[in-house]
Design brief:
The protein has 12 helices and 10 strands. By secondary structure, the chain is α/β, with parallel strands linked by helices. α1 crosses α3 and α8 packs across α10 (239-250).
């Protein structure tokens, strides 16, 4: 199993959906797309063993992978949508409040260059209700940056995505889902996974503010994202159109049933304990209700 399959607890979510032990997901026979991107579904620089399957979120990503020579790409839908199937909102009619804002972030090999205070000022001037800033683990552990956001509002971090099978917060997505369900809006200064997740979880999405830059960033790709998905950009995009676009990118309508997903991922039926068959049946029922 490539270690990126464990990022954010993706393999764990998929195991739970399939009725397996979420704390000990079996080895996945291939590469699971671990974040929204506009190429072949693999992260930049991901070592790829030729001929191995790539499990991508959407048909659009599969077509891009095919055009790049990745002929083994299979559409499964995003782990986020499988999480929604196994974690239905316990209070779907509860009142939501304010905005959760995800500042564009860096990672171990690329930091972000930009004016965080300028972004904070714009967000506070734009959002009418209370604002929660969710920092990625990388910026959260930079004391100067975290302090700037803490002076402006509530600050949270969903956890560490993990690396080389170590330190993974397997509840990362569960915590993210709980936060998103508290808020009326989800916003960021760059279109990315968090905005798409928020839209799928019932938030009104928005993308605005100084986009900042990654060190050694491919500027042409960043510009293409703004051109190709205009319906998700702006302070107040049309929520119906924006949400439809977000769901398409996440692979809505492409989800597999538990048995089919187990077969795709190389999880033999022998991995399923008899006592867990009821969990599979329940998850399949929830998925059918969501699709309806």
């Amino acid at each position: 199993m490539h270690h990126a399959n464990h990022f954010y607890g993706h393999a764990h979510v998929l195991a739970e959906y399939c009725g397996l032990d979420r704390d000990k997901p079996p080895r996945i026979d291939g590469y699971v797309q671990h974040g929204w991107n506009v190429v072949d579904g693999l992260g930049g620089g991901t070592p790829y063993v030729s001929g191995r399957p790539i499990f991508v979120w959407s048909e659009q990503t599969r077509r891009r992978a095919w055009s790049m020579g990745r002929r083994q790409a299979t559409v499964t839908g995003s782990p986020w949508l499988y999480l929604l199937a196994v974690e239905p909102d316990p209070e779907p009619d509860h009142e939501r409040e304010g905005t959760i804002f995800y500042p564009f972030h860096g990672w171990e090999r690329q930091g972000v260059k930009g004016d965080h205070q300028r972004l904070i000022d714009e967000v506070i001037a734009t959002e009418p209700g209370p604002v929660t800033f969710c920092l990625y683990w990388h910026e959260y552990h930079i004391a100067e940056i975290r302090a700037q956001y803490e002076r402006a509002g509530r600050v949270v971090c969903h956890g560490y995505r993990g690396h080389q099978w170590r330190g993974t917060d397997t509840r990362f997505l569960y915590k993210q889902l709980a936060e998103l369900r508290r808020h009326r809006r989800v916003a960021s200064n760059r279109l990315g996974s968090a905005v798409l997740y928020g839209a799928a979880a019932g938030c009104a999405p928005a993308v605005y503010g100084d986009p900042m830059q990654l060190e050694r960033e491919d500027i042409a790709t960043a510009d293409r994202i703004r051109r190709q998905w205009p319906e998700l950009h702006g302070v107040h995009p049309d929520p119906v159109e924006a949400t439809a676009s977000a769901l398409a990118e996440l692979g809505a309508g492409q989800l597999a049933g538990p048995a089919e997903l187990r077969a795709m991922l190389g999880w033999r039926r022998g991995h399923l304990e008899p006592a867990e068959t009821a969990v599979v049946a329940d998850a399949k029922s929830v998925l059918s209700e969501e699709a309806a």
